[in-house]
Amino acid sequence: MFRFRFKKPFFVIFFIFFIFLFAIFSLDTTQASRPFNPFLAGNSIGEPTIDLGSVVVEGETLNIDLRELVNFKRSQMIEFTSEYSPRLAFIETLYKIRNDKAPQNITLTFFGDIMSFTPNTKSGVWLNDQAVVMENFDPTEKDLPINWGIPNFTPSVNGNWRIPYRPLIKSPIVKFNLEVPTGTHTLKVAYFAQPSTYLQGEETIPWQFVYVLTPARDWVGFSNLDTTIYIPKGWQFSSNVKLTAEGEMLKGSWQSLPANSLSLTIQIPSPNFFKLGILAWLIGLALCLSLGNLTGKLLRRYKKSLVLAMPISFILGIIWVLLVFFLVSYDQNHLKFLVGENQLARPNNSFVKIASLPFAFTLGVALTQITAFFSHRNIVENKS
To answer: What's 203's domain CATH number?
Structure first.
């Protein structure tokens, strides 16, 4: 009786093509139709636009407090808009100004919204400790000035790459009108803001804070910028300008504007631990190659068709899927335990895990069957 034997490479080509089709149809098209957006746009922050006239800015002290970022909750990650933003950054700026002429009226224009200057809080504008009344708020969103020069990236804390930066490019404006008497005065501005972030390429959230300095180039006699930035204890940071770390404080001092903007990234360190997901791929590879080889030899020894290797291939594919699923899940839960869910970029990173399961199954079936085929064929050739 004639018995067909798989000695031609046609079988290998057909089988790989079958597995390829299976992998395509196993993809979740509903997930593909809703692509993940890694950008969470925070507020665009910077120096106010000031019609100073002949008022001279003799110095500026910029204080930025980012310590509240440790209290960020995942439920606040819906959108960083006026309504939902938790406003976890606090900015306080002290300007030393001098008016050598008669009293002058000046206007401070901020790109922000009413949430930035929350009533009954420590936010607002003061001239010599006297509160300045905010003008009627205009909620109409306006484009940021082109000369602001918002950077496209902020530096990463590990220095390996630059993190894409996309803040809100449209914002309402807030205005304060004040009269500056003759002489030297202190102008204080304080408000709340929300940093931006990019939830891709990092295990923990890289918080991006950019303070634009370019409007100060149009001021009269600007000099002496001193900056103090408070960050959570133990967090890492990276900046486009030189900052000196003193515990939880980052300090910088310049006689003139150091750059168009102060670009800062802060981040809770990602813990180092051995990820068992790597073992899942190595163990699966070893099982498929060894058992595939053994299956091919046994089928030839007992004069059975290679088609009988298919159930073994499918079982090993399923075993590989289970290994990847459980060990990768363990890695994710362990990382969540070490860092906390709220500071993980993607705490339920099910996309990477689920997307790898069809690949693990396909690879397991293909490797087992192909290994069995070549083992089966080698025995045939050796005996002949």
So the answer is: 2.60.40
HEC string of 21-79 equals: HHHHHCCCHHHHCCCCCCEECCCCEECCEECCCCCEEEEEEEEEECHHHHHCCHHHHCC
Backbone dihedral region of 31: left (phi > 0), alpha (psi from -120 to 50 degrees) or beta? alpha
294 falls within a domain: yes
pTM of model > 0.90: no
- CA-based angle 101:106:107, to the nearest 5? 170
- Pick from 56, 114, 66, 68: which is nearest to 92 by CA? 66
Confidence of residue 27 (pLDDT cuts 50, 70, 90): very low
**CB of 176 closer than 8 Å to CB of 134:** yes
Phi, psi of 183 (to 5 degrees): 115, -170
User: What strand order describes the sheet that includes 138-143?
Assistant: 49-50, 104-111, 170-180, 138-143
What string of DSSP letters covers 289-327?
HHHHHHHHHHHHHTT--GGGHHHHHHHHHHHHHHHHHHH
Side chain identity at 344, as an amino acid letter?
Answer: L
CA distance 7 to 15: 14
Helix (H) or strand (E) holding 239: strand 236-239
Residues 6+ apart with CB under 8 A from 192: 87, 89, 90, 91, 115, 116, 117, 118, 121, 123
The pLDDT, as a whole number, for residue 4 is 41
- Count how many residues are written for the chain: 384
What is the average pLDDT score of the chain?
Answer: 80
Query: Are 254 and 366 in a shared domain?
Result: no
